[in-house]
Specification:
The structure holds two protein chains of two kinds. Chain A is built from no helices and eleven strands. By secondary structure, chain A is an all-beta fold. The chains are: A mainly beta, B mainly beta. At the A-B interface, strand 4, strand 5, strand 9 and strand 10 of A face strand 5 and strand 10 of B. Chain A: This is IGL c2508_light_IGLV7-43_IGLJ2.
């Protein structure tokens, strides 16, 4: 069973920069896994932020960016805002099936 | 404008079969590359992917739940139906459907639009 692993929690100061990562139990994450990133706030449905590693949706704020870093997918928030406090999930594509990561709780403090 | 909405029972008894319907608009499930997925989230826990159905009727299931799940589509009604058999209290969760697309031209794959979710409680 494939497992996708994220940091359980991270804390960042307002205006700071933070990087969240997403690892696959099958090995290094490459662009062929089409990493997607989602933001979820309490009581809301997930909102798509990044797709296929580094592409932004039309509604994605510029401070969010995606990349591959050290064999993992990465989501970087630059100039963090208080409203960025949320749970963040990655998704990886495995030839038709997908797997979500366990989520990262981002605290802005 | 793409929208999706989940519907189905809010309460099911243990051992019963759950049937959920995702009714969507703004896209066609007969368009190459398009898919609709089901995802669930138990209270306070992480997202868990359940199943996907693609435009070509290719169906994929979570390995851990495959024996209990069936996903079908009705392209003319713009609906996708998920059935889950032998429901248990641990299946209590908010169930979401979402639009996915593989863009053959750009070589990108994404989930973008999600329904609001529907909370299903399993209890006797």
């Amino acid at each position: 069973q494939t497992v996708v692993t994220q940091e359980p929690s991270l804390t960042v100061s307002p205006g700071g920069t933070v990087t969240l990562t997403c690892a696959s139990s099958t090995g290094a994450v490459t662009s062929g896994y089409y990493p997607n990133w989602f933001q979820q706030k309490p009581g809301q449905a997930p909102r798509a932020l990044i797709y296929s590693t580094s592409n932004k949706h039309s509604w994605t704020p510029a401070r969010f960016s995606g990349s591959l870093l050290g064999g993992k997918a990465a989501l970087t928030l630059s100039g963090v805002q208080p409203e960025d406090e949320a749970e963040y999930y990655c998704l990886l594509y495995y030839g038709g099936a997908v797997v979500f990561g366990g989520g990262t709780k981002l605290t802005v403090l | 404008q793409i929208t999706l909405k989940e519907s189905g029972p809010t309460l099911v008894k243990p051992t019963q079969t759950l049937t959920l319907t995702c009714t969507f608009s703004g896209f066609s499930l007969s368009t190459s590359g398009v898919g609709v997925g089901w995802i669930r989230q138990p209270p306070g826990k992480a997202l868990e992917w359940l199943a996907l159905i693609y435009w070509n009727d290719d169906k994929r299931y979570s390995p851990s739940l495959k024996s209990r799940l069936t996903i079908t589509k009705d392209t003319s009604k713009n609906q996708v139906v998920l059935t889950m058999t032998n429901m248990d209290p641990v299946d209590t969760a908010t169930y979401y459907c979402a639009h996915s697309n593989y863009d053959f031209w750009s070589g990108t794959y994404y989930f973008d639009y999600w329904g609001q979710g529907t909370l299903v409680t399993v209890s006797s």
